Amino acid sequence: MGGTKKKKYESGSATAFVSRNKALKKLQLSLGDFRALCIFKGIYPVEPLHKKKVNKGSTAVKTFYNLKDIQFLAHDNLIVKFREKKHYLRRLKKAVAKKNKFAESIIRDNKPVYSLKHVMKERYPTFTDALRDLDDCLNLCFVFATFPHSQRIKVDLVQLCHKRTVEFQHYVIAAKALRKVFVSIKGIYYQADIKGETITWVVSHKRGYEHPQDVDYKIMETFAEYNSVLLGHINIKLYSDSHLVYPPQLTERIYHDTAKCLEGDSADELLASLAPQIRTTGESPDELEEDPEVDAMNAVNVDDPEYIEKSKLEAATISRLQSLFKGCKFFLNREVPREELTFVIRCCGGEASWDSSLGLGAKYGESYDGITHHIIDRPTVSNQRLDRTYIQPQWVFDCVNARVLLPPQDYFPGIPCPPHLSPFVEEKDGEYVPEEKVKFLKRMRGEVEEEDEEESEAEEGEEEEESEDEEEVQQQAAGNKRKRNAKEDAQGPEKKAVKMAVSEGAIEKVDKQKALARQEAEERRLGEMMIPKKHKRLYHKIMTSRKKSSQETRKLEEKKEKLKAAKKKSKGKKEKV
Amino acid sequence: MNSSGKRKSMSPDEESRESNEEESPLLTSQIPASDDESGASEESEDEGSGSDESSSQDEDDVGEDTSDDSDSDDESDNDAGYDTASVEKDKSAADPGTTESSVNGKDEYEYDSSDEEDVRNTIGNIPVNWYDDYDHIGYDVEGNKLIKPKQGDALDEFLEKVDDPNYWRTVRNKFTGQKVILSEEDLKQIQRIQSSTHPGGSDDLYAPWVDFFSNEVMEMPVTGRPPDKRSFIPSKWEKQRVGQMVHALKMGWMKPRGEIRKAKLSHDPNAPSLDLWKDDTESDITKRYRMHIPAPKEPLPGHAESYNPPEEYLFDEEEEAKWDGQEPEERRMDFKPAKFSSYRAVPKFEKFINERFHRLLDLYMAARQRKMKMNVNPEDLIPKRPDKKDLQPYPTREGMIYKGHKDMVRTISPDPTGQWLASGSDDATVKVWEIATSRCMKTIPMVGKVTCVVWSPNPAVNLLAATVESDVILINPNVGDKLVCSNTDSTLESYVESATTSEHKSPVTWSTASEADHKKGVRLKIEHQQEITHFNWHAKGDYFATVQRGSKGQAVLIHQLSRRQTQAPFSKPKGLVQRVMFHPVHPYFFVATQQHIRILLDHFVLEVFFVQANCKYISCIDIHPGGDNLIIGSYDSRLCWFDLDLSTKPYQTLKYHKKALRQVTYHKHYPLFASASDDGAVIVSHGKVYTDQLLNPLIVTVKILRGHKTTNHLSVLDCKFHPTQPWVFSSGADSTIRLFV
């Protein structure tokens, strides 16, 4: 035969990947430029299946890229633009150093600019692809939108990000796409349903910033640059699809208040307050509302009647959510986060306003009679009015998550609110479900079954505690009884032993269930022993994770028990006092 | 003077002068052309002016000659625009006649500016001695011969020397042959050159520099040269260029800089546009697109992250201490749950930006790998067990405890009838128990620790073999059927020693028991040289094998009871022998060393099989009654089942014990096998061997039996099945024997 001998590492995975240093050498780029290029083009390192083979026998730690990816990068025009930029910077530096103002201005005028449009098209061939990547994009844009101006961060970028986020929020309001809100200690999480994609983003609390030192702002800026462009493209598409005018325009002409801001800014400011409606192009705007049901009908599992039923129910709750605050007029007190609440309220069809001295966008003052809800975040209310409900901001969030208007009694100012639960958690079997959630779910089910109970529901909140107390008392009583029985049992034989009499032999009670369970456990153990080596690891991995979660559940349950006991004790003491 | 003048370097060599000489007539011819502005090139203009100005240089020459102004050189340099040769001041080449001819006229432009007259001889740059043989020395401008001046002879020379007072300073001009009397000035210069001082003889070499051509406008022109015409009229070329630009501006081809800047600022290449996803339905699914591994989404927050979580989610002191003590990477949550009374009270989250930044890093730096998420139900991984009823009968619970030994019971053996159980212990006794009642029927004291007790498999005799240190002791325990007992004794006594046996030097000594021992039941004693570690009967009960410790060539010994003979089959055993066994049916012999099992045939010569046990150290071995299957137990807590028909590698390796295995055993009738380990468990498994060759053995674990306590890291030391019933005996380090039924 006499074929040439095949050499090692000349084909296969050894040539399909390149290390980062090699990629740099091939592209002739600096590390910073390479980074930026990777960020723009969405190229990431990969973990080869056989790292040793790829690394030509060495086991040293290295980052690998797909060779094809690097070749792909090499053909991009952005590389040329990066080189131009490098050149530009060098020339500019020279001019500045020479204090040659004229040359400097000319050089500055010829600053190379690059377009990222082709990158977008490459990375997201369809609009849904772009929406799938929207989470990270939104997160970063919202972070940048709130950045203070500093030496490191350019003002333009911050303003652009802010503009884009405001546009996006206006879209969500117009489309009523918000589904869930969660106030966490990190920030406020929002979840929206945009064209069937679930999109979650987090916005930090507006509390003022310090720039942390251990963060590379250059990288953040590169990402922000890319994401602001992406968000712009997405926004315009969303706007056009829902027949809105882009860039967003106010429906009414505003007469700005010169005292608060410059004339040019007032429209932007007003938009940023999220209060005014934006203009539509005037084409069938109610198409959106039909969407969920259409979706339900077009669902994949048309044959499955259960699925159809389920999706119909879901569609109903969503439409209920979209008009949750319809007719409600909210007044936001001074200490309440204005934009966040306005956003949430308007997404659910409500209206929000605030004192006109606080900012643009206020429609009515505190004295307006039409106000139904007054959101307040302080313990006492001065000159309370009877024609409106005073509530804490958590009520709004909880209502959105519950998709019904919750009884406001628990959220009156000054009262500690019931716990705010994460709407993102869906407990599986065996996981801990907080008591409040169980209660809520029960109530919801009750409502669905019998709607007459609604009247009593209002009082339920107060009654619940009492009923709980009663239960506890009963439990205590039962416990006492049991204890007494036990005592008797314990004392019984002793007494009889003294008498030296032979008692009637009791039949040994075999707890059949326990025995059965024991037997089953044993059989399981025996079965586990026979698991082939191939699956043993996997099995134990699954089992340990299960064990862990069950441990966590147990721990939470124990804690809950303890807390309950402590509460009871303190209550008992109070009563005694 | 004219401002556009360029300073040119001066080259004082003659070549350049000559070139100038060649040029100058040409230039002069161009002068009229340049003057009438008809469109000659700028260069020619310049050169024209240069030729014009060459006149001024002559004036300088004169000045120098006369006034010896040191600055004059510089001056002529600065008179830019004309060429260099005119500035030549080479004294040696200079003709004294020049001084004469350079007459100073009133009008400096009247005279012919060329300095040709200076050169009388026009032969060019050739050696003069070529004319030595001629009367003339060269030619003048008109082409007439220059006649050599008359040369005096030596006498004339002498006379001149005497008469002429200037003789000492008279030199001869080579080119003309004329005599030149050096002037005072020349002499001085020569002196200066000789003394290596400044040839020009300036007084103050370091005088301050006077910037003659400064930016200041002087009252008087430096030279008397009238300004050019072109300095009064606008440039044509400029006009043309401006015209072009104006036209370009008009046509919109060119834009002012401010406008360009504005346009650039207003045009954003990244401005949102709708054409990106215009045709949403169609997309080219490239390979790149398919290979893309999307970044995993960030996990969503749970209840614990809420600003107002249920109280059970808050940390108690223990958890908080743990959280504080952990490194940030180890923590289960990257935040401490906290409860705030109102939304207003929630502070900023310190690590918010860091968290976002780390997410970005993950996006572009973390290596991605496509992972198939397995949705495995762990129940599916457990192999299907046959119905319990199909596996029965098997021992399920402890039925009996045999107490009586004072030290750990190393070995037990039920008798072939299933009525008696013999046990050997470290307390130097062999006990015989009645199985059904747990009653100790006989206690036979020994001289040392009993390591092995085995009933003879021959049902016709009632013989028990026990190994104590280096002795094998055959005991007739005298229990059970009297007839059998007496039969046993009679068969043992029927032996007659033959003469032939003593020829070979036997590795062991056979001896009958003493009277006292006989009463106890001891019948025969076989003394070995080394301690015996293992003992095993042949299935027929005539042969038995022992394993000695240490002695290499005689590690394995085969004894024949009927002939009281012993042989050492292996001269050199391979490896350290652990166990030996006879095949129940065929004439095979199994030798288990630490890591291998060899199966030998026909007088231990032919190796049939070489089995590699996949374990480090074999501790025990048993053969299936069918003879085709084998189990071994090892100290590295493995149990291997070999199907000898299938392969020399284990058919199945079970690692269900946690510690070293001490004993493995098959049941004689039921498809059961059991293993005893140091972890205190006796695990009974169902091991069914099918007669059909195509079916692999079925192995199912059926019961874990526990009862023995662990003492000194030892727990169960031996286990044996009842010969007829599905019961298993186990003996342990806690000096008890247990029966599981």
From TrEMBL, chain A:
PROSITE patterns: BRCT (PS50172). Residues 448-473 have a biased composition (Acidic residues). Keywords: Nucleus, Ribosome biogenesis, rRNA processing. Residues 320-413 form the BRCT domain. GO terms for biological process: maturation of 5.8S rRNA from tricistronic rRNA transcript (SSU-rRNA, 5.8S rRNA, LSU-rRNA); maturation of LSU-rRNA from tricistronic rRNA transcript (SSU-rRNA, 5.8S rRNA, LSU-rRNA). It is found in: Nucleus, Nucleolus; Nucleus, Nucleoplasm. It comes from the Eukaryota. Residues 486-497, 549-564 have a biased composition (Basic and acidic residues). HAMAP family: Pescadillo (MF_03028). This is Pescadillo homolog. It comes from Elysia chlorotica.
UniProtKB/TrEMBL annotation, chain B:
The keyword rRNA processing applies. InterPro entries: BOP1/Erb1, BOP1_N_dom, WD40/YVTN_repeat-like_dom_sf, WD40_repeat_CS, WD40_repeat_dom_sf, WD40_rpt. Residues 12-24, 34-80, 109-118 have a biased composition (Acidic residues). WD repeats lie at residues 402-443. Pfam families: BOP1NT, WD40. GO terms for molecular function: ribonucleoprotein complex binding. Keywords: Nucleus, Repeat, Ribosome biogenesis, rRNA processing, WD repeat. GO terms for biological process: maturation of 5.8S rRNA from tricistronic rRNA transcript (SSU-rRNA, 5.8S rRNA, LSU-rRNA); maturation of LSU-rRNA from tricistronic rRNA transcript (SSU-rRNA, 5.8S rRNA, LSU-rRNA). One of its GO terms (cellular component) is preribosome, large subunit precursor. Residues 131-395 form the BOP1 N-terminal domain. The keyword Magnesium does not apply. It comes from the Eukaryota. SMART domains: BOP1NT (SM01035), WD40 (SM00320). Its main location: nucleus. Residues 1-119 are annotated as: Disordered. It is found in: Nucleus, Nucleolus; Nucleus, Nucleoplasm. Belongs to the WD repeat BOP1/ERB1 family. Required for maturation of ribosomal RNAs and formation of the large ribosomal subunit. Component of the PeBoW complex, which is required for maturation of 28S and 5.8S ribosomal RNAs and formation of the 60S ribosome. This is Ribosome biogenesis protein BOP1 homolog. It comes from Elysia chlorotica.
